[in-house]
Amino acid sequence: MSTTPPEPAADVILREERLDVSTERYATERVTIERIIVTEQRTITVEVRHEEIRITREAVDEEPVFSADASAHPDPLVVILHEEQINLTKAVVPVERVTVQIHTVAQHQHVTETLGHEVIDIDRTPTPTDRFSSPDATTPEGFPA
């Protein structure tokens, strides 16, 4: 004689809470990068040259020969003298390349949350027809009461 277990009187599905953790990206700060012109005064020494006249006189042993048509007052000798002058020119030239990069820094933060889950709470109230009051009692089919 084979005995099959009886069909359950009720099914209960137990549930629990599970924590789903994700991250979202938010803007936290705006950074503005500007180029600023810084002025400074510089003094440099530049060598400049100019021409001067040097006259060298020498004694002559012989008498100079003058022509009869030479005037008593000859035209003066004219010499043009030159000098160097400083010319200043400022020019903006590239001197440095600056690269700005953004990198992500990871850090750990601890998150605590309370999770709940369901358990079965059986409240047995004895009835007058309950013939099996002992916890070790079994039903006539041999199953625990």
State the total count of DSSP E strands.
0
Mean pLDDT: 85
User: Unreliable runs, pLDDT <50, ≥5 residues?
Assistant: none
Structural class: little secondary structure
Instruction: Note the main sheet.
Output: none
Shape estimate = rod-shaped
Termini gap: 22 Å
Please give the oligomerization state of what you see.
Answer: single chain
Structure description:
The chain is largely without helices or strands and about 140 residues long. It is about 0% helix and about 0% strand. The protein has no helices and no strands. The two termini are about 20 Å apart.
Topology:
Elements: no helix or strand
Describe the structure concisely.
By secondary structure, the chain is mostly loops. 0% of the residues are buried.
Essential attributes:
rod-shaped; little secondary structure; 145 residues
